[in-house]
Amino acid sequence: MNKYQDKKILILGGGTSTLDVQWENLDYDYLWTCNEFYLEPKVYSQNIDLYLLSYTADLTNTLLRKKLKGSNTTVLFENTHYRGKQDTDQFKAFEKYIDIPIIGGNLCSITKTDSPAAKSGAAFRLIYAALHSNANVIYFSGFDGFNKEFSNIHAFTKH
To answer: CA 97 from chain center: how many Å?
Structure first.
């Protein structure tokens, strides 16, 4: 986390605001994202510094594989949220293909409990982790969840 000290981090989650806000105009040093970011061209086209791999991510997806293969992206998964998928042959083949290590553990202390924060979305946990990085500025978009009617669109999956 030392490399983020006094830097600007942009965190992009799957909430609707990732589609609605012009975050591309921000001056940032590092971009963090999560889940199925690779399905949204605006996010996919960016240089991803940190990627929080979700249980729902399709490890056979060509776009995801192409984006990560040999990249400098830090790829993480959270033991609490990954449900043992890291022990599957598919996960091992994915890690071998992208040729970068995937780091497992707990993103931050809130993932170690059954608190509402631990059960929140990946974007919230990334924001929480960024708060502990000594970054100078933390921007985020896509932290907005679904509305009461579930009528707003997910930025990545379009559901």
So the answer is: 20
Q: Are 16 and 34 contacting, i.e. CB atoms less than 8 angstroms apart?
A: no
Per-residue pLDDT tens digits of the chain, which is 159 residues long = 789 999 999 999 999 999 999 999 999 999 999 999 999 999 999 999 999 999 899 999 999 999 999 999 999 998 887 888 899 999 999 999 999 999 998 776 655 556 665 667 889 889 989 998 999 999 999 988 777 787 888 899 998
Q: Which two tokens stand for residue 73?
A: 């992206």
**CA angle centred on 94, ends 141 and 92, rounded to 5°:** 120
Query: Residue-wise over 78-89: b if at least 16 C-beta within 10 A, else e?
Result: bebbbeebbeee
Q: What is the DSSP letter of 9?
A: E
Using CA atoms, how far residue 49 sits from 8, 11, 88, 158, in Å, is 12, 10, 25, 24
Give the DSSP per-residue string, 77-135: EEHHHHTTGGGSHHHHHHHHHHTS-EEEE-SSGGGGS-STTTTS-HHHHHHHHHHTTT-
Residue among 109, 67, 137, 89 at smallest CA distance from 53 = 67
154 Cβ partners below 8 Å, 6+ apart? 14, 15, 16, 146
Q: How many residues does the chain have?
A: 159
